[in-house]
Write the structure tokens for this entry.
Amino acid sequence: MKFANRFGNFTEVGEKKGAAMSLPKSDLTKQADGLTTMELGAVLPKTAAVEGGHLHIGGVDMVELAREQGTALYVFDEADLRDRMEQYREAFSEVYPNSEVLYASKAFLNKEVLRIAAEEGMCLDVSGGGELYCARMVDFPMERVFMHGNYKTERELREAMAAGVGRIVLDTRIELGRVSRIAGELGITQKVLMRITPGVEADTHEYIKTGCEDSKFGFTMLGDFAFNCVEDVLAAPNVDLAGFHCHIGSQIFALHSFREAVQVMVEFVARVKERYGLEVEDLDMGGGLGIAYTTADRPSSIYEFAECTASAVKEFCAEYGVKEPRLLVEPGRSLVANAGVTLYTIGIMKTLPDIRKYVAVDGGMSDNIRTALYHAEYEAVIANKADEPRTEIVTLCGKHCESGDAVVLDGSLQHPELGDIACVFGTGAYCYTMSSSYNGQPRPAIVFVKDGQARVVTRRETYEDLFDRDL
Ligand SMILES: *Cc1c(COP(=O)(O)O)cnc(C)c1O
């Protein structure tokens, strides 16, 4: 079966045409890792602790919270979230003061996370009218908002420009024409960045790669197309070219990919200076820093990422003889993924000898599509047995009508029993924002926990919500 992931890559899944999406064969030789919760290290949110055998986050007992709020439930460690935003701001202001950190809101979006991002001094990436609407609802400073997307509709462009967003990131020449015309109609000059496809192959999971040449995003460098289009942008009325943008992929562990992208971009900036006499204000290197989904993952730190990117910009600007631009980065996943967990109640178990053990939770691909989509890996524990070692290998499957509906494939887990509360870590990014109501499943509530307090920031979807729009 062929399907598209959110980056538009098409991937073969399943053996034969028309076959249902199914799980990869289980490795029956895999041994449980014997770890207890606190031994999971970087996968855990900052304030994770175990007391009385129960997992606590933000000083709140996850087992009690699950009972009070019901499951499935998204829980965010607010201290972790704020801490990562502060680390990004501090790291970049230390190594490259003329910089801004943009939160890529598509990773996790609700009003509260945007209020926090504003408080923490972030700028904001939005990639459509809906994300922009949320930013406007919380009075996010519009001059700090950047609008992305390979096809922003006429309406989205008009709303963004009328609202006064700081930058529109141009993706195509067709869009240049629209932005120029709308800016004229609104009587404004719109600052824009051009998104360039630098042809850098990010060293990451092959499904998540956007910098390579075959991409629906941005102006290609092939045949010097992007370079020649700079002339069009400079000639267009009501538009002011503020700089260039690239985004080479996501969940990237190898920092050298960013360094290579910086080199390509700075060389581009230097050629633009030489040919058009323009020294741009902004260089936006996108997001993509990887995080620890499993105990085997060894991501670079936020500080290392800042150091690598900033030193590459300084080095290549000196080498190519251009002034150092303002440096922008757009992290999504690395700000929110590890701050979030999902709680579920285990309600069905089924062992197929020599095949696998299924442990079903009251959610699945509706609240976390990543496992079904590209066999993403996660760590899980039983929140009410958090100090016990993980002694079994199980597949945490969902409750949806798809064979491929799973949250954790062949993961270590404490001995599961009906009624246990499972906690899956690292679900703060690209789970809620990619959620659906498949099978009529209402979306989970979102709870922020901090200093022993739990507050619902997004209420659970109701059955009425699901069909409210039907006439
Ligand atoms: C998705 C995206 C990001 C964020 O990527 P992460 O991997 O979540 O850090 C940043 N910029 C652009 C243009 C994106 O599409």
Summary: Residues 104, 106-107, 125, 148, 247, 250, 286-289, 330-334 surround pyridoxal-5'-phosphate (CB under 6 Å).
